[in-house]
């Protein structure tokens, strides 16, 4: 089972990407990156659970209901009498999302070190990512969890930077660098690396992360494909497949979920498994994840694929 750490909230989309007065037409969809990854893993046929905190309000109850419907375990979710966070989403002409977050006292920011669970042998991998990593006290709790479990289980990271939640770049850099030094695999977008280090070539940052524990960094570049940085095998690129893009919401989360699914399916979901990946296996894994992400891009919103759709 993969334990996905982080937030669950509602993405509230402006329909058709524009205002229509006198009323605005919005559609609320459960989401954000950790929530999507947990569902993506389950849809691809691997057991998953979400670690974090959700509201006891009716929206929080809906989030839990969706997770249960999608066969994501909720036993690691805590309950909080705090309002569910909302992310208002608008899509630009190319289908790229822009977010505005509403939730000053967010449930996902309330997890403490004392509330961290003891994990049994069912948990083979732990995934970290998005803004729960930088919001206290959850930030300190997740850093403690990673420090405790690094080297014992597969640990992966997708920074998923959200400057409109935490605008302080120094905070993001501190946390991401800490985590990057302890995980086995990093999936990161070139946009996130450019946000983190605007004056540095993203490839330089990716290479630097291989100096810690990390064995493999996969830098996604949207329509320009994926750059692979492997400690064992060097660097190379994968072209993106052709796809009729409706929007890109959830594409990165799908890619991440597919990576975890591939590793589990091939008995490689461990620190030793990632270290042993051959170049051919990395290529197959990236191609599988790229096909999965392309399916999500061909649909409206974070409609992540199921295993049978990928052959």
From TrEMBL:
PROSITE patterns with a match to the protein in the record: PFKB_KINASES_2
InterPro entries named among the record's database cross-references: Carboh/pur_kinase_PfkB_CS (IPR002173), PfkB_Carbo_kinase (IPR050306), PfkB_dom (IPR011611), Ribokinase-like (IPR029056)
Gene3D superfamilies tied to this protein: 3.40.1190.20
Keywords: ATP-binding, Kinase, Nucleotide-binding, Transferase
GO molecular function terms attached to this record: kinase activity
Protein name per Swiss-Prot or TrEMBL: Carbohydrate kinase
Keyword Kinase tagged: yes
Residue ranges of domain Carbohydrate kinase PfkB in the record: 30-304
Family per similarity comment: Belongs to the carbohydrate kinase PfkB family.
């Amino acid at each position: 089972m993969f334990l996905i750490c982080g937030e669950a909230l509602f993405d509230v989309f402006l329909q058709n990407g524009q205002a229509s007065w006198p009323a605005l037409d919005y559609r609320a969809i459960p989401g954000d990156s950790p929530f999507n990854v947990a569902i993506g893993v389950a849809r691809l046929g691997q057991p998953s659970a979400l670690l974090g905190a959700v509201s006891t309000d009716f929206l929080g109850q809906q989030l839990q209901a969706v997770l249960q419907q999608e066969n994501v375990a909720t036993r690691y979710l805590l309950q909080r009498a705090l309002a569910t966070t909302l992310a208002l989403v608008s899509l630009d002409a190319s289908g790229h999302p822009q977010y505005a977050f509403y939730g000053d006292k967010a449930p996902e920011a309330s997890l403490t070190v004392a509330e961290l669970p003891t994990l049994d042998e069912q948990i083979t991998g732990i995934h970290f990512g998005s803004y729960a990593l930088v919001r206290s006290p959850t930030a300190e709790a997740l850093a403690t969890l990673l420090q405790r479990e690094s080297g014992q289980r597969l640990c992966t990271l997708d920074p998923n930077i959200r400057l409109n939640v935490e605008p302080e770049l120094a905070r993001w850099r501190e946390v991401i660098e800490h985590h990057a030094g302890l995980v086995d695999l990093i999936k990161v977008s070139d946009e996130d690396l450019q946000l983190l280090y605007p004056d540095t070539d993203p490839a330089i940052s990716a290479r630097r992360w291989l100096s810690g524990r990390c064995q493999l960094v996969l830098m996604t570049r949207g329509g320009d494909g994926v750059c692979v940085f492997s400690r064992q095998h060097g660097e190379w690129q994968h072209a993106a497949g052709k796809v009729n893009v409706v929007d890109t919401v959830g594409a990165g989360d799908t890619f991440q979920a597919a990576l975890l699914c591939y590793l589990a399916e091939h008995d490689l979901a461990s620190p030793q498994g990632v270290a042993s990946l051959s170049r051919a296996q990395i290529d197959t894994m990236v191609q599988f994840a790229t096909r999965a992400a392309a399916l999500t891009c061909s649909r409206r919103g974070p409609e992540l694929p199921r295993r049978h759709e990928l052959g």
